[in-house]
Design brief:
By secondary structure, the chain is mainly alpha-helical. The protein has four helices and no strands.
Length: about 200
């Protein structure tokens, strides 16, 4: 067992006001610095959160794909051209009527020839009406598809405007200065000069 005999000193060390003041100032500055850093961290977190929300909203915007609509329009336009061609072909077709019976070769009565012509004209009229009705349906579908394409282009422009708006907000937030950052620099400079 070892015993140490270390006598206690009777000297009292006191801090003068001159010595204590920098410590108190440093403590206050360090506390102020900590508070400012908390404020800056919160504001930066809010800023990053707002930027993330805007980026997400911007990414959620998508432009409509007009490729399908353009393809449908071309297809419908071609079908309409084909229907017009078919209508003109049938309309310009002249029916040839042989006045002789195809079986026995005898001359047919004028009334039978007239009835055959009327029947042929009626069939031709029905066929032309069917083509016209189909053409009208195609034209209506074409008009609706063109309208949808115009709406898609309008929506694309609106989306571009919205994307630009979001981007401006994002850029503004990124450039926004947090005033407490300058205060932090001042407090850090005061702490440094107090320690020197």
């Amino acid at each position: 067992i070892f015993f140490f005999d270390d006598t206690a000193t009777t000297e009292i060390y006191t801090l003068s006001l001159h010595d204590a003041l920098p410590i108190a100032i440093n403590d206050a500055l360090i506390k102020e610095l900590g508070e400012l850093q908390k404020i800056v961290a919160k504001k930066q977190s809010d800023q990053y959160s707002q930027i993330a929300k805007l980026e997400k909203a911007k990414a959620a915007l998508y432009e409509p794909d007009t490729t399908l609509l353009n393809t449908q329009i071309k297809t419908l336009e071609q079908k309409i051209i084909d229907k017009r061609t078919e209508w003109h072909t049938i309309n310009n077709k002249k029916e040839e009527f042989d006045s002789n019976c195809p079986y026995c070769g005898t001359t047919l009565a004028e009334s039978k020839i007239k009835a055959a012509k009327e029947k042929a004209n009626l069939l031709k009229a029905k066929e032309l009406e069917k083509i016209r009705t189909e053409g009208k349906k195609l034209f209506t579908e074409l008009s609706e598809t063109k309208k949808a394409l115009l709406e898609a282009h309008k929506k694309s422009k609106e989306i571009e405007v919205q994307k630009t708006k979001y981007q401006k907000q994002i850029d503004t937030l990124k450039m926004e200065k947090i005033p407490e950052m300058a205060q932090i620099s001042l407090v850090e400079a005061k702490i440094k000069s107090a320690n020197d």
